[in-house]
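Both lines are quoted verbatim for reference:

——
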Amino acid sequence: MTGKILTIVIVVSALLAGVSMYYLQVYAYYETVTPTGTDDVQLATLDGARETILYEDFQAIDSESSPIRYRACFTTQTPLSTLTSTYEQYVGASPRNAPGWFDCFDAEAIGEDIALGRAQVFTSERNREFGIDRVVAISEDGRGYIWHEINDCGDKAYDGSPLGDDCPERDNGGS
């Protein structure tokens, strides 16, 4: 009898732990970002300045637990040809998955659009936080997506490689 009770306690504990971990990972740390309505979508011009582009239907989520959890979706009427001739393109970006409940951001579909040339990725802000860039992908039909990308300096810092001369000074105040 003691063995059955112990088995039930272990199974129930494991289920509660699993459900708790799932909830914490997928829901608990994310917060809805309140849009400003004026500067939520910015792109870096070819000379490095940041400009807000026209956008609508902005929605975003973020989390303080990780610098790469930011995701946003929006629409724009600005033609992709205008954007590509005015703003800095970002090479090598790959969208990360968003929680399933944030259904406007489908990383697999966005990645496919980028790979097939139906969407272009632009720089929004380099080193927003050390080693983290904000990037914006915009598709031919005006759907836009924003996420944070680990840049080369971030890759080097996180794997322990020596930082190159092109990396900015790292702020170690919080570490």
